[in-house]
Design brief:
about 150 residues; mainly alpha; rod-shaped
């Protein structure tokens, strides 16, 4: 969807610049932030659990008296799948967050928002950083066990 389509979508509604409208806009914006933080929490859990599965089964195979598993690469594949799902969740959430944030700042909503140009939330930086950490975890698992 192009920026002009987003701006045109904001014009579908009559937007009055009042205190109620501004606080409604803030509630919506904070709801978008909470949704993004939920995506981040889920992705971190997927990435961490995937990495932990790989590490746990690698250490378990090295314990004396433990029988070798029938499918020794299965934990690696499961871990890589979980890490990939976490990274994908972060990428999708970053795209969704930016699309909605752009919509909330466009057209007549910009007057209601009252934001200065260039103000950003730290949640986006955290999501990008965690995406990089997820990519590092994926590479570490893949290169170490591959």
């Amino acid at each position: 969807m192009a920026d002009t389509d987003i701006a045109a979508g904001a014009e579908r509604f009559e937007v009055r610049v009042t205190a109620d409208t501004h606080f409604g806009w803030l509630r919506t914006r904070l709801s978008v932030e909470r949704t993004m933080m939920s995506w981040i929490r889920t992705a971190v859990s997927l990435i961490g659990f995937g990495f932990a599965i790989v590490q746990f089964f690698e250490r378990m195979d090295q314990m004396p008296g433990v029988q070798r598993s029938l499918f020794p690469n299965a934990p690696m594949y499961l871990g890589l799948a979980l890490i990939s799902c976490g990274i994908l969740a972060l990428v999708i959430s970053i795209w969704q967050y930016q699309w909605i944030a752009r919509y909330l700042r466009s057209g007549s909503f910009a007057r209601v928002a009252g934001l200065k140009e260039g103000m950003q939330s730290p949640v986006l930086a955290v999501a990008v950083l965690l995406t990089l950490i997820g990519l590092f975890a994926f590479a570490a698992v893949l290169l170490h066990l591959g």
